[in-house]
Structure formats: structure tokens, C-alpha cells
Amino acid sequence: MSRSYTVRRFQNSDANEVSALIIKTLRITNSKDYSPEFIENGVKRFTPESVIERAGWTHFYVICDKNLIVGCGAIGPYWDKEDESSFFTIFVLPEYQGKGVGRKIIETLEKDEYFLRAKRVEIPASITACGFYQKMGYTYKNGIDVVDEEQLFRLEKFR
Description:
Elements: E1 6-9, H1 15-28, H2 36-45, H3 48-57, E2 59-65, E3 68-77, E4 84-92, H4 101-109, H5 113-116, E5 120-125, H6 130-135, E6 139-140, E7 153-158
Parallel strand pairs: 4-5
Antiparallel strand pairs: 1-2, 2-3, 3-4, 5-7, 6-7
Helix pairs in contact: 1-2, 1-3
């Protein structure tokens, strides 16, 4: 039974709902792989204001189930390079994980102009999401399969 989700670009009026979605996901899903201190530092970084700021320099999308935002994701330039891009802020509400929302986000981002122009796309992946991105065809950057100083894996896909 597949749900029908709608995808649209983020609007500033979505900021409170998207911030709450990210914080809930961090506290419930990501807390299995990270310390409480790490999670709360992440929570502080995803205020509604910071979400609006991020949407200003990325193409930021939301996935909706009727009127509820159930996932989000963004793509933008990788350090101002024309031929490289990066995914950012990919989160799915815990109760919607495993229901195709993450796949819909990746498919959306992979149709975006920042993806289509890039020869390489990088994902700073949480421990929690690393396996999902690998299923979507992303591999460890330079074969490095350990987390970096930010506690993230660096994954990439070449086009």
C-alpha cells in the first residue's frame, strides 16, 4: 500500500513545522547513535530562523502527507563549485520512516538543477542514515568508512 506524498519547495511559513520535525527526528531516531549532548547541539542548530537561512542558499524541499510536512531535504553548491553539489538537512518524521518518504526526498533532490549540473554529489551522512544512503547508491568518499570530527560519514555519488 503506497501512500501518495506531495513535494514542494520550502516556504518561510513552513519554518516552525520543519524545525519541529528535525528536532523530533534528532531526539527520537538519531539518539540511538549519538550522545544526548550531540543531539542537543544539533537541536540548537535547527531553529526556525536557521532553517529559513539554509533555504536561502539551497533548494529546500518538503514532503507532505496531505497538510502535514513529513520530510525535508535540500541540495546546494558544494563550496561554491559549479560541478559539485551537496545534500543537506534530510530528515523524515520517525513515524514515517520506512514508508518511502526518504526515497522520495532523494529522488526529488536528484532531479534538481544542482544535482543535474554536478559531476559529484556529497552527503554529510549521520551514522543513523548511512545505510539508507548506501541503498540509494552513495558510497564512502575516498573509501573512508569512519566518521569524521563532526561525527558524520562523507558519502558521494559520481554522475
